[in-house]
Fold this sequence. Notes:
The structure is a single chain. The protein has helices at 4-10, 24-35, 54-60, 67-71, 88-97, 105-108, 110-121, 125-149, 162-168, 198-201; strands at 46-51, 74-81, 153-154, 175-184. The chain has 206 residues and is α+β, with helices and mostly antiparallel strands. The protein has one domain: NADH Oxidase (3-Layer(aba) Sandwich). The protein has a four-stranded antiparallel sheet with strand order 1-2-4-3, with helices on both faces. Helix 1 crosses helix 8 (125-149) and helix 2 (24-35) packs across helix 8. The chain is globular and about 55 Å long. Residues 12-13, 15, 66, 155-159, 193 line the site of flavin mononucleotide.
Amino acid sequence: xxxxxxxxxxxxxxxxxxxxxxxxxxxxxxxxxxxxxxxxxxxxxxxxxxxxxxxxxxxxxxxxxxxxxxxxxxxxxxxxxxxxxxxxxxxxxxxxxxxxxxxxxxxxxxxxxxxxxxxxxxxxxxxxxxxxxxxxxxxxxxxxxxxxxxxxxxxxxxxxxxxxxxxxxxxxxxxxxxxxxxxxxxxxxxxxxxxxxxxxxxxxxx
Length: 206
Ligand SMILES: Cc1cc2nc3c(=O)[nH]c(=O)nc-3n(C[C@H](O)[C@H](O)[C@H](O)COP(=O)(O)O)c2cc1C
């Protein structure tokens, strides 16, 4: 297994893939990395559609101006489940049973989580979408890094028509596609892309 630091350092956005198929057990490994990602209140409201069939991949060409996306042997459409917010209390109970909050005020004072659940139920659609998308991003990046670990390349794609993709995939209204992730064996080995120096990222130390 590759060291995490090495995976972080060697990851690139890959935009050209070999045509070799990605075996199903490998795809399962990728999805399992997403499953293990943390999420707010352990909501686990990120969902995935695995697109492999040549017919579906060709349809995807209508959903993005970037042809390399559909040329990948597998594309994962990453979705949020807007109804996932409704599970807050169930997930909280599971966390309590798993002793997740031992030694913190959350373990002894149920009103804290209740207040948080209430706050959530009054969030508007835009705030819900932002919150679930933040959670989805973590799961997606877990896939991206696990892909490096397995010798695969991928590229986050937000340049696509979400509504068109949703309808193409026949998804229920509750789901929104927030990113596409083409994945395959890299047919390019790009140099590291520019990054700002650390000094520009750290606003201050206090
Ligand atoms: C949220 C997000 C959205 C992105 N959307 C696209 C996209 O639509 N098309 C694309 O070619 N690359 C996209 N990228 C890849 C970025 O361009 C890339 O991460 C950045 O240029 C740095 O390059 P690197 O990933 O190789 O380090 C996206 C990346 C992120 C994190």
